[in-house]
Write a structure and sequence with these properties.
The complex is a heterodimer of chains A (279) and B (179).
Chain A lengths: L1 E4 H16 L4 H13 L3 H20 L9 E9 L2 E4 L3 H15 L22 E7 L4 E8 L1 H4 L3 E5 L4 H16 L7 E8 L2 H11 L11 H15 L14 E9 L6 E8 L6 E4 L1
Parallel strand pairs in A: 1-3, 2-4, 7-8
Antiparallel strand pairs in A: 2-5, 5-10, 6-9, 7-9
Chain B lengths: L1 E4 L4 H4 L7 E10 L2 H12 L12 E3 L27 H6 L4 E4 L5 H9 L3 E4 L5 H5 L2 E8 L8 E15 L15
The chains are: A alpha/beta (279), B alpha/beta (179).
């Protein structure tokens, strides 16, 4: 058994949040560069060049890459041989987020869903916990903007719709979103599970690097086919047309009920910010 | 690149076409969901507005707080579609132009044609770059809304693209020209 004070987790989340807000993931940055070089549509190329220049400015000036510094998504994969001490875990996570958004001069974008009153400190974060083997804690921190989150969808397909139905759900979600979620997007997809676990899978899929494929061959095929179909839509960067509407389609799966085929499609804009660390 | 000074004169607005790249200088006012809701309520109740709508340009945006020594925090556009229920009435009241990102519905596009006005698309996700175009920033209304308050921004060479022109033209591949 390994004792870990939640204070350490709070500090890690604080550092990761500060870093995440001001830089794109290396895989996202590389994908934008590749898209820019390949683009022949004039307006889309201008937009991609602007985004790359923006990433450089943000890094140089330690400014948020995007003013939507998001709702903080925190995934904690906790080894079952860990004994947590100190402040309650979720409170520690929120404290890390609260301090980082203040000290980083990040936007506070969290509000009451009914009165719309801002909570003032970007909490609560969406903290997910998973219990796994071992005595480490793996932390993933992803600020999630809502221009793209708003364009996401969850579909309870019929089992008969099969692989074609899954691909159609993914492509149609991106098509209907059009220019609104700041394309080129990254598409996180959950296939299977139940209503709730399917949505979580889609979110978790977004924490995987752009350009990677699911180790399961038939799932990777869905990723490839969906990505090709999306990039044939000609929505392009910012909706200005062009060859790149999505940088990546990342699918994760779980077994589901014999009566159902849930598919969750979580849209992420081109501003992918994600930090991973292990304690 | 076409250099524009705000407010746009109608004869200048009429020279712009969807797809034109522009650099905007002048005064723009930020407003997003909550600010729009309040503005519309004030208009409905015939109460005074915190700024004159004619000659104003609204930028759909909510900036990050400014770091010490900086004029503004990151300040890119937000999704315009959420404001499309408010835009036609404001354009009909004389609003000079709008700046945001992404498609808006045909009601907005018809209002742009009716009023010889233009919708500019800023590059979504380029917030850090836009903060450098802001030379002065001042909160002029609804400070309790924090980042959703109305900020008066003086901008210089703010890059954007004409998304919908005054003749029904569109840059978006998802939509067709109207008018």
């Amino acid at each position: 058994m390994r004792k870990i004070d939640t204070r350490i987790i709070e500090e890690k989340i604080y550092d990761m949040a500060l870093r995440a807000g001001t830089k794109l993931t290396p895989s996202c940055r590389a994908a934008l560069e590749k898209a820019k070089n390949a683009e022949t549509c004039r307006a889309a190329k201008f937009a991609l060049e602007t985004l790359i220049e923006n990433a450089e400015t943000a890094a140089r000036e330690s400014l948020p890459v995007c003013q939507d510094t998001g709702m903080a998504v925190v995934i904690l994969e906790i080894g079952q041989d860990v004994f947590l001490e100190g402040k309650p875990l979720i409170a520690a996570g929120n404290e890390g987020v609260r301090r980082a958004y203040k000290d980083g001069y990040f936007r506070k974008s969290v509000c009451d869903p009914v009165t719309r009153a801002n909570t003032g400190d970007n909490t609560p974060a969406a903290v997910h916990t998973e219990i796994c083997e071992g005595e480490d804690i793996k932390i993933t921190f992803m600020p999630k903007g809502f221009g793209s989150e708003n364009m996401s969808g969850l579909y309870m397909l019929k089992p008969a719709q099969g692989v074609d139905g899954i691909i159609e759900a993914i492509v149609n979600t991106v098509k209907n979103a059009g220019s609104r979620p700041c394309p080129p997007v990254c598409v996180g997809v959950g296939i299977g599970g139940s209503f709730d676990t399917c949505a979580y899978l889609a979110k978790k899929a977004l924490t995987r690097d752009v350009g990677t494929f699911n180790p399961r061959g038939d799932i990777a095929d869905i990723e490839r086919i969906a990505l090709d179909k999306i990039n044939a839509l000609d929505i392009g960067c910012q909706g200005f047309g062009g060859a790149t509407t999505a940088l990546s389609v990342n699918c994760e799966w779980l077994p589901t009920h014999i009566a159902g085929l849930p598919v969750a499609v979580n849209i992420q804009c081109h501003c992918i910010r994600c930090e991973k660390e292990t304690i | 690149m076409i250099k524009l000074t705000l407010p746009l004169k109608k004869d200048v607005a009429k020279t712009l076409r969807a797809g034109d790249s522009v650099l905007i200088s002048g005064v723009i006012l930020t407003a997003r969901d909550c600010a729009h809701k309040r503005l519309v309520e004030l208009i409905k109740n015939k109460q005074p507005l915190p700024f004159d709508i004619p000659s104003s340009v609204i930028y759909y945006a909510g900036p990050c707080p400014a770091k010490p020594g900086k004029v503004s925090g990151s300040c890119g556009p937000t999704t315009s579609a959420r404001m499309e229920t408010f835009a036609p009435a404001l354009l009909d009241s004389g609003l000079n132009a709008i700046i945001g990102k992404g498609e808006m519905n045909n009601d907005v596009r018809k209002a742009l044609i009716r009023n010889s006005s233009v919708y500019f698309a800023a590059i979504g996700g380029a917030g850090a770059l836009y903060s450098e175009c802001i030379k002065k920033s001042e909160c002029i209304a609804f400070p309790d809304l924090l980042s959703e308050a109305v900020y008066r921004l003086e901008v210089q060479n703010f890059p954007a693209v004409v998304a919908y022109d005054a003749f029904g033209g569109t840059i978006y591949r998802n939509s067709v020209d109207i008018g």
